[in-house]
Amino acid sequence: MQANRSWTLNIRSQNATTWTYVGTAGGVKPIGDLAWSTASGGAFAAITNADAIFTAGASATSGTPAQAFFRTSWAGGYGSPGNAPGTYSLPVIFTLSAP
Fold first, then answer.
1. What are the residue boundaries of the structural domains of the chain, listed by start?
2. Quick one: CA dihedral 25, 77, 48, 42, positive or negative?
3. At residue 96, does pLDDT exceed 80?
4. C-alpha distances out from residue 6 to 12, 15, 36, 55, 66, Å
């Protein structure tokens, strides 16, 4: 990213606590089951519904692309509500600001 002033890129989930579920099996999956990182082999952090700093830069930075990597966790056992068959979706919001 290139900018003429310092900037911050935040990440968060639009949902408060669970993924949006469509199905008949009563699926309930916590938003924290989706983790994000800025490197494929890096440390992953569970997403929350509060802004977290995804990346930031100073003015006149080199223009390095910001990459996002995601990992989904699944609870053990087929009987877990987070593993119920159906369609799960989780809106992710990136907010770019110049402090």
1. 7-75
2. negative
3. yes
4. 20, 29, 23, 11, 15
Mean pLDDT value across residues 39-63: 89
Q: Which residue has the tokens 């692309």?
A: 65
DSSP states of 22-58 as a string? ESSS----BGGGEEEESSTTS--EE--SS-EEEEEE-
Full-model pTM: 0.87
How far is the C-alpha of 61 from the C-alpha of 83, rounded, in Å? 43
C-alpha torsion sign, points 46, 49, 50, 56: positive
Structure tokens at 4: 């003429």
> By percentage, how much of the chain surpasses pLDDT 70?
93
Q: What's residue 72's pLDDT?
A: 95
C-alpha–C-alpha distance, residues 70 and 72, integer Å? 7
